[in-house]
Design goal:
Blueprint (H helix, E strand, L loop, with lengths): L17 H5 L3 E5 L4 H13 L4 E6 L7 H9 L5 H6 L3 H6 L1 E5 L10 H10 L2 E4 L10 H19 L7 E5 L10 E2 L12 H9 L3 H12 L5 H16 L5 E5 L2 E3 L15 H5 L1 H5 L3 E4 L8 E3 H20 L10 E3 L9 H9 L5 H10 E4 L3 H23 L6 H14 L1 H4 L4 E2 L2 H9 L2 H6 L9 H4 L3 H24 L1
Parallel strand pairs: 1-2, 1-4, 2-3, 4-5, 5-7, 6-13, 7-11, 8-10, 9-12
């Protein structure tokens, strides 16, 4: 097996010149209203002199793309720009929403298509379904077919410089060692055969066959991401495209503010009981050291990768350039799951809470104890909801326990396995940054002080819990009105 990472061009400090790459550039972003997408848009507006940012946004619950964009820009993540940039209004005006329907062959209408093909230079495809229990053909439709249609559109962009396809480091988690290359070994004859086969199945048959097709892969999300990478290598290798593989993405380290988060997927969701002072034990191996990346580091890596993809395309040799892959993971400076509770607790304001949470929340190597505790918690939650019902109030205790349990089960695989990897392309990017760009794009994971990071982690979760509660109350009040 060839494990050599192929690269082009000299290793010179400042060779990327990232600031200049984005100056007066028009950027297209999918998934811009999501967790990573919001940080990406905010970073582009705050730190770079871009000309325009097109966001492809799907209509949701009868809310138009323009209205969804306005709601996003009013969010707290953009407060730094509002408070520090004198031209904040002009910066926000650079962001343009476009109605998109990824379930159609033409994802935008003809007018918008013409605009994109004439103006866009840089594309970030961030949109994805991150539901781990999705039926396989639905996961493929969102994570593969949507990308396929977007890159077909990108093929007609006259000034295209770079495309960053955001995948996941775990797209090939059935391998103990993951290289920076595409693994085109999709089983059962490949993606097309799987799609054709699923077309003839009933809903029940699809659910049963999903487990069969996945094989050693833990869920349809990572499998569909693997299929997307293989599709890119086969169909779009002629484009200036690269695959960016972030690991578990968690709340921000420093930008736009320490600890910022707006969703509770993955590791962050499992830390909610710690912040709330609830009891929760998870099954896993305490010694396992996961790959984690703060969202601001992840976005900075993506921004540098787009520039690096362009640099590779501009070199003369080799004539046939492989699709570059970036494993955004760092071997050193990782902490074990067994230490995670203590780290999260270090950010709790109350000394007693810090002490109690270390007892209440644990990673257990024995499955029986988390299962027993879950049974007791579910019983307690049902009793609490029944008592609330007697007083005419609706309880949500069972719903909360169920949600945390579902999330815990979905990511259990990743608490029990550990990987090694090659990240030569990411390290090379770091070496190519100028001093100014390195300050602007801080993404060296080996320099993260995790104790310093976790000082704001619990606070960030608590702030988002309060925001969600306020939105829930506001929604209930408007419904009553």
């Amino acid at each position: 097996m060839n494990t050599e990472t192929i690269d082009t061009g000299p290793v010179l400090e400042g060779a990327l010149n990232v600031a200049e790459f984005y100056r007066d550039a028009t950027v297209l972003v999918t998934g811009g209203t999501g967790f990573i997408g919001k940080v990406l848009v905010e970073k582009l507006l705050r730190c770079f002199e871009v000309k325009k940012i097109f966001l492809l946004i799907r209509r949701k619950a009868n809310v138009s793309a323009t209205d969804r964009l306005q709601q996003m820009l009013e969010g707290p993540i953009f407060d730094t720009i509002r408070s520090t940039a004198p031209d904040a209004k002009e910066r926000f005006a650079k962001v343009v929403a476009m109605d998109a329907a990824f379930d159609r062959e033409d994802i935008v209408d003809d007018v918008d298509k013409t605009k994109l093909c004439n103006e866009v230079q840089i594309v970030f495809h961030v949109m994805a379904s991150i539901r781990f229990n999705e039926v396989l053909d639905e996961a493929i439709a969102i994570n593969v077919t949507s990308a396929q249609r977007l890159y077909a559109l990108a093929s007609s962009m006259a000034e295209l410089r770079s495309i960053v396809h955001v995948s996941t480091f775990y797209a090939n988690c059935d391998r103990p060692y993951i290289e920076e290359r595409i693994y085109d070994d999709v089983p059962y004859g490949g993606l097309e055969h799987i799609q054709l086969f699923f077309k003839s199945l009933s809903v029940e048959e699809k659910e049963r066959m999903t487990r069969v097709v996945l094989g050693n892969m833990p869920n349809s999300y990572v499998f569909s991401k693997k299929c997307a990478e293989a599709m890119i290598g086969r169909e779009f290798g002629h484009l200036p495209i690269g695959i960016f593989r972030p690991p578990i993405v968690i709340s921000s380290y420093r930008e736009p503010e320490p600890g910022w988060v707006d969703c509770f997927h993955g590791a962050t969701g499992l830390c909610v009981p710690v912040v709330l002072g609830k009891t929760m034990w998870y099954y896993g191996k305490p010694e396992v050291k996961p790959f984690m990346s703060p969202v601001d580091h992840t976005v900075s890596g993506m921004l540098a990768a787009a520039c690096d993809i362009y640099r590779r395309q501009c070199t003369i040799l080799p004539v046939e350039k492989p699709v570059p892959v970036y494993n955004f993971t760092f071997e050193k400076n990782r902490f074990a799951y067994g230490d995670m509770v203590e780290l999260v607790c270090s950010g709790l304001p109350n000394v007693l809470d810090r002490w109690l949470s270390r007892i209440k929340c644990r990673i257990s190597p024995w499955k029986i104890f988390p299962q027993m505790l879950l049974w007791l918690m579910t019983l307690q939650a049902r009793i609490a909801d029944e008592i609330l019902a007697w007083f005419g109030k609706r309880g949500s205790n069972v719903k909360i326990v169920s949600a945390i349990t579902t999330l815990s089960n979905a990511v259990e695989y990743f608490r029990c396995h550990m990987w090694t990897m090659d990240n030569s392309n990411v390290k090379r990017m770091l070496s190519l940054l100028s001093r100014d760009d390195a300050k602007r794009l801080d993404f060296d994971g080996e320099q993260i002080d995790w104790r310093d990071y976790h000082k704001s982690y619990a606070k960030g979760i608590a702030m988002e819990l309060m925001r969600k509660n306020d939105r829930r109350k506001s929604s209930m009040a408007s419904n009553r009105a």
